[in-house]
Amino acid sequence: MAGETKTKASARKDQREGLRVERVWTTEGVHPYDEVAWERRDVIMTNWRDGSINFEQRGVEFPTTWSVNAANIVTTKYFRGAVGTPQREQSLRQLIDRVVSTYTKAGREHGYFATEQDSEIFGHELTWMLLHQVFSFNSPVWFNVGTASPQQVSACFILSVDDSMDSILDWYKEEGLIFKGGSGSGVNLSRIRSSKELLTSGGTASGPVSFMRGADASAGTIKSGGATRRAAKMVILDVDHPDVEEFIETKAREEDKIRALRDAGFDMDLGGKDIVSVQYQNANNSVRVSAEFMRAVEDDTEFGLRSRLDGSVISTVKGKELFNKLAQAAWECADPGIQYDDTINDWHTCPETGRITASNPCSEYMHLDNSSCNLASLNLLKYLNADGSFAVEKFVRSVEFVITAMDISISFADFPTEKIGETSRAYRQLGIGYANLGALLMASGLAYDSEGGRAVAAAISSLMTGTAYRRSAELAGVVGAYDGYARNASAHQRVMHKHAAANEAIALVGAVDTAIQEAATAQWTLGNEIGAKNGWRNSQASVLAPTGTIGLMMDCDTTGVEPDLALVKFKKLVGGGSMQIVNQTVPRALRTLGYQEEQVEAIVEHISSHGHVVDAPGLRPEHYSVFDCAMGERTIAPMGHVRMMAAIQPFISGAISKTVNMPETATVEDVEEIYYQGWKLGLKALAIYRDNCKVGQPLSAVSKKKDAEPAPVVQEVVKTEKVIEYRPVRKRLPKKRPSSTVSFSVAGAEGYLTASSYPDDGLGEVFLKMSKQGSTLAGVMDAFSVAISIGLQYGVPLETYVSKFVNMRFEPAGMTDDPDIRLASSVMDYIFRRLALDFLDFDTRSELGILTSSERAAQLRAEAGESDVDLTEMRNSAPVEKPAADKAAAKPVEVEIESPRRAGSSTELLELVQGKAADAPLCFTCGTKMRPAGSCYVCEGCGSTSGCS
């Protein structure tokens, strides 16, 4: 196969003239490296949880314009060679040269360029764009190209599984090989017969859900084997599969198990030793729905579940009821997502070869089974001119360079299996995309959820894909159309005309989007003319990926199609340390909107202090929406995200990796509406995440009861103020008093807590020891202990201290060695939780949300009706501090206090600003809280991702 391909390429080189390349970014006679200032830096990466050094390389070379974070991520993730050896890369020049030289050499060998000079200019242009963070290839390119490793360039893979044991075992093996290389894969299991069907031997089939267990265990094992990222996978089942209800409920049931085990005292936190006992946690699940099913939902009619063997209807379900179960499961645990089969295949360029049945883990790549896609993303903010216009010509030329380089890579790439290699070389699927859309819109003074914002996004997407396909048609005239084009020519042309027609239908709003759309129209017209003559080199051109690690490499404020996460940002500093800054897009947007410099400074100062624009001095309320973000005081409504996806989808060959965030208060009906509107608006795939849906909340019933009775709380506040006005009288402890000492460990930091009681068992004295005598920390702890002890003796209720110090966040924070308090956000958080458990009564602790592991488990059983729980006995058995008669009236008021905790990422910074936890996992590598990137997560600290791009 390889020899035949090389022979064909040689023949084409003799018959066709290669590409002529003109300079866009570079200057003739000046190498791109000579245009920038360089500096040497030391890259030292520590584990946020314990401070240990997990990477160190000194003297690495980067341009002065590259941020500390971008340089750190490139050094740790992409530099090749053993650290400390001469073979280790130590400069960005070496990294870029390794990749670009491989691309240009392959381009010459396979006949892409007309002359040596054209290939040299091409190499310089790619170098300049990478050096100035204008675009980036996906991670596997940086990992592998130009090294002794297999030249794997693709991040996304789609596998296939047939209804046979051999095929199922092959699936396990192929998936493992892909995970080993740090990539992800997706698969549709709908060919496997259901558990309601018979085997040829006469027994009953296991069904696809049972085989998912083995694949999930395999992924979990490989994930924990030290790869650069978690194993990422997608599992899909068609909605007419007889086991679809079991599939839908699979992860929701496991989430219930996680809560139960956590409340029983097991370590169920991310990466915890007991979480491995829970199944199906290593995959994203999606249900593939048909238009027939969605019409059954609309009409509230029956829908047939069909045999995998002969297609006959085995049973029927109410379409609306099944759709409700799908939404209910997603509401409970964010899975499964939804994929719209008819829409996907209506935009399929190669239906004669086979249907599109699956996607990659993040749902942006959708094409043939046993295929792959390599990705690259453009940094849109680089094309925003000072006058607010979009640099259309430079954008078009950039797309030409990038799509050419991506196609060249298929000529030399290696693939994890021969089946994938054959399909990828025959259909040459590419995935050009972009990042920083949210930052571009904000800097342009456009709200993300607005007609103007959607018009610009749609026009840019159309221009990108139209240009990519036009260049693909030109490449077909130089090195030939993709091998599968001839049998799919009619369908491919039909899809190209659908894209062009959608471009004409963009609802234009302003001068900027009008200019971009006009350029896109020219690209689609010219591209379709050339394609009708030459065919196309690529069966797919574009996707919108999460751009996690590469987005950080390009110093993007926003990833993929996402809006800004928040207006305040975490920034690392040269020489160590970090600081909070307001996103630099904000002052640019304010100037675009016409604000004077004095106003800009005042608004930025307000944002820095409050984290949002509400009541910012001089900011007009009609401009608030420009600064709406994914999280924070003003968040973009869920349908705002869906409308943006709908505006862009007609101009993307594949799909869009994006999760629609929903508030915790969202209902199952809200999820149903989002999934239904996704179908009506022409999306290909959709996933939702409801805040806190994956966090066990055993005291939610207590909290709701408390919220439902606000009036008594107000009355108690009044009493509190009156009690405080009395002159306090100190009640000293007797010379001899009972006490207890508890040793503890919070994230590895050890200490001792000694608590002394009055004879009536009320707490009266606390002493803390966490360091050597004479040290600053020991002195501070002694002073703090004396202050708390005197306060207790003057009658300050313990619950007042508990309410103020619980949930305080600062280092050290993390796992503890206390079975009743598995996780603490600080030493103070742990100490006052422990004191509450030892000295406060059950009812008081319930209101504060502090219970022992056995109490939490018992309360859950009572709420579920599984067993009778004697709450009276539970109250009597709990330790109690006996308050004074007037102390019971002294209910504290929750107030926001400034936390001294140091943030390790933008997500953690946002937690400090908002005063509440964000639903994001901790990074396995460095321990910082990750940030959303499409339907995945990325770590700003080290660049690790939970996805495949």
UniProtKB/TrEMBL annotation:
Residues 154-689 form the Ribonucleotide reductase large subunit C-terminal domain. InterPro entries: RdRp_reductase_class-2, RNR_2_N, RNR_lg_C, RNR_NrdJ/NrdZ, TSCPD_dom. It is an enzyme of class 1 (oxidoreductase). Keywords: Cobalamin, Cobalt, Disulfide bond, DNA synthesis, Nucleotide-binding, Oxidoreductase. The keyword Magnesium does not apply. It catalyses: a 2'-deoxyribonucleoside 5'-diphosphate + [thioredoxin]-disulfide + H2O = a ribonucleoside 5'-diphosphate + [thioredoxin]-dithiol. Residues 43-133 form the Ribonucleotide reductase class II vitamin B12-dependent N-terminal domain. Residues 735-837 form the TSCPD domain. CDD domains: RNR_II_dimer. Gene3D superfamilies: 3.20.70.20. Its cofactor is adenosylcob(III)alamin. Signal peptide: none annotated. Coiled coil: none annotated. Its EC number is 1.17.4.1. Catalyzes the reduction of ribonucleotides to deoxyribonucleotides. May function to provide a pool of deoxyribonucleotide precursors for DNA repair during oxygen limitation and/or for immediate growth after restoration of oxygen. Belongs to the ribonucleoside diphosphate reductase class-2 family. This is Vitamin B12-dependent ribonucleotide reductase. It comes from Dactylosporangium darangshiense.
